[in-house]
């Protein structure tokens, strides 16, 4: 009986030791998964958006801390301005996305700050950037907006959920998305939309159009050529076929993959 009791105690201690090791391994895995979020949070440091960086310096210094600025923002948009946190991952990028989504009224808002002398030199600095580099700022805001998959993955790996199981799947998804950036316009739709909106549709502009009604469906390269019909855009494709299109249709297929602002 004593032998059995001692044996039982040994098995119990062994079982407890095994459970401790398992918990330690799970804790280590969880910490490693948390490090994925921490690593993702540094992604923005490797995306060079110089005009946006220059604009956000006075924005964060003034607008985020001035009651009158916040009140005017809410009056114009109907919603409160997002707050900024120095400890929240991607807080700055979330503010940038708010500006991107409301870019159409940004100049009016900054002009109000200048007119009502809210702040010192900050509003004038932002106004100067909008006047001289507005198109570049809009494009860089669109680029920041297209980084949402990274932000979403970062926050998705927070907390005490099954982060270990999710980490590999999310990282694989980000890698697949990242492999298309710069090669496929759909990977950065906001950047593509801004670039296409500013293109003058004239002979020589490149087209990259998807035809779903051919077998098999495929992408065709084309070039805008002198129009055959007034009011329409004529595109000549790599197989020498030509199609007349409305401006709206042709614009949505402008090849932006190698285009610069």
Task: Describe what this molecule looks like in 3D.
With 261 residues, the protein is of the alpha+beta class. The protein is built from 10 helices and 4 strands; from the N terminus they run αααααααααββββα. Strands 1-2-3-4 form a 4-stranded antiparallel sheet. Strand 1 and strand 2 (218-225) form a beta hairpin. Helix 7 (148-156) packs antiparallel against helix 8 (163-180). Residues 1-16 and 18-34 have low confidence and may be disordered.
Provide a concise account of the structure shown.
Residues 1-37 are annotated as: Disordered. With 261 residues, this protein is of the alpha+beta class.
How are the elements arranged and paired?
Layout: H1 2-40, H2 50-62, H3 67-77, H4 91-101, H5 106-115, H6 122-145, H7 148-156, H8 163-180, H9 189-198, E1 206-211, E2 218-225, E3 233-237, E4 242-245, H10 247-251
Antiparallel strand pairs: 1-2, 2-3, 3-4
Please give a handful of descriptors for the protein shown:
flat; 4 strands; four-stranded antiparallel β-sheet; 261 residues; alpha+beta
Report the sheet with the most strands, covering strand number, pairing sense and barrel closure: 4 strands, antiparallel
Our estimate of the beta-strand percent is 5-15%
Averaged pLDDT: 82
Helix content: 55-70%
Number of helical regions: 10
Give the helix/strand class. alpha+beta
Give the uncertain stretches in residue-range form: 1-16, 18-34
Overall shape: it is flat
The order of strands across the largest sheet is 1-2-3-4
Order of helices and strands: HHHHHHHHHEEEEH
How far is it from the N-terminal to the C-terminal residue, by CA?
A: 85 Å
Q: Number of DSSP strands?
A: 4
Region (Disordered): 1-37
